[in-house]
Amino acid sequence: MDTKDFTVTEALKFARHDFLNELQLILLHIDLNNTEEARKAIQGATGRLRSMAMLERLRMPSVEKWLNTFDWVHTEFSKRIECDIVAADRLVDDQEVAACLEYVIRSLAAVLSPLDDYGLVIHVTATKSEWQIQLILDETVALVCTDYAPKLNFAIMETADQGQWTFTISGR
């Protein structure tokens, strides 16, 4: 799927589909009398939903939208998001941050095998004065965003070391 602006109706359709898939998995575990796996599935789903809800505190709506729709657009990745965010106003053009993240993910996907699924961990942290988004892939890949020059008020750093690729974007 291409990156695009989802209508509210489209976003709700995708979100309902994802939610129903989660419920079907839980029901399967219950039907198999595997209550421990059902419990883990429920805890995993609620944890993911809490993290996604916490993104609102970042007060970067374009970035929040990018992260919330990531799974629908970038199907080559299995995303796990971890958030620790203190609500505060940010001194950055969040549309430019979202554009940078999209550029990096598209560049990364271009150097990966299209036949494989890749686990991507996204750490989003923010204090009252600083924010940081870190993308971590447990794969050895060449640097992909060396030619990206941010236009505004944020810093980027990319490393590929010991079987792990990490991209960090941060600002105030």
Q: What is the succession of H and E elements?
A: HHHEHEEEE
Looking across the biggest beta sheet, what order are the strands in? Answer: 1-2-3-5-4
Tell me the helix content. 40-55%
Unreliable residue stretches: none
Number of helices: 4
Number of domains: 1
Provide the CATH topology.
Answer: Heat Shock Protein 90
A few lines on this structure:
This protein is α+β, with helices and mostly antiparallel strands and 172 residues long. Helix content is 44%, strand content 24%. The protein has a 5-stranded mixed sheet with strand order 1-2-3-5-4.
Describe the structure.
By secondary structure, the chain is α+β, with helices and mostly antiparallel strands. It has one domain (8-171): Histidine kinase-like ATPase, C-terminal domain (Heat Shock Protein 90, 2-Layer Sandwich). The protein has helices at 8-31, 35-54, 61-73, 94-111, and strands spanning 77-85, 118-126, 131-137, 154-161, 164-171. A five-stranded mixed beta sheet has the order 1-2-3-5-4. The model has no long low-confidence stretch (mean pLDDT 87).
